[in-house]
Amino acid sequence: DVKVTQSSRYLVKRTGEKVFLECVQDMDHENMFWYRQDPGLGLRLIYFSYDVKMKEKGDIPEGYSVSREKKERFSLILESASTNQTSMYLCASSFSGNTIYFGEGSWLTVV
Amino acid sequence: RKEVEQDPGPFNVPEGATVAFNCTYSNSASQSFFWYRQDCRKEPKLLMSVYSSGNEDGRFTAQLNRASQYISLLIRDSKLSDSATYLCVVTKSGGSYIPTFGRGTSLIVHP
Question: CB within 8 A of B85, min separation 6: which ones?
């Protein structure tokens, strides 16, 4: 079975802190994604990557950055967390055009 | 116009009912289509892919209408456990692969 692992499930951070969300997939997928999901707004794409060291902005990249140094790992970074970044963050991976597999999600609260 | 549109519902149906959801997409170059199921506070999981000829998996039937640019999901003999949000996903051919998600349709099956 494909496994997408988000190591941090529940986090509480203070405003202004730097936050790292890690995601690892074990199926050699070239594509990886970071979404956030908020009530009534659906899934919104923050960043995606289609290869190592490659990244593309999604619909809402402001306040976020990403890193993909190895094919299996895609990290989301909040340089200076703000309360409006309180959300559920979902990592996903896929081969192009095929099924997208999600991690279990990271629930971030910024106080 | 949103790229992928779904009626948010909720659809409130009794056990045993048949219920259908539609999802419209705006990009005629769309190539692959999926239905995902998301339970409350959980990650989306693949329910089924949607093929041009239509496909069935037990009580679930998915269809694609390229001419009218919509996909549908039919659930027969609804169970309480079918209560969830159903997300439609569309991908485009060519260039960077980015799946586009609808905001989801909420289904509540009651006794």
Answer: B37, B38, B39, B104, B105, B106, B107
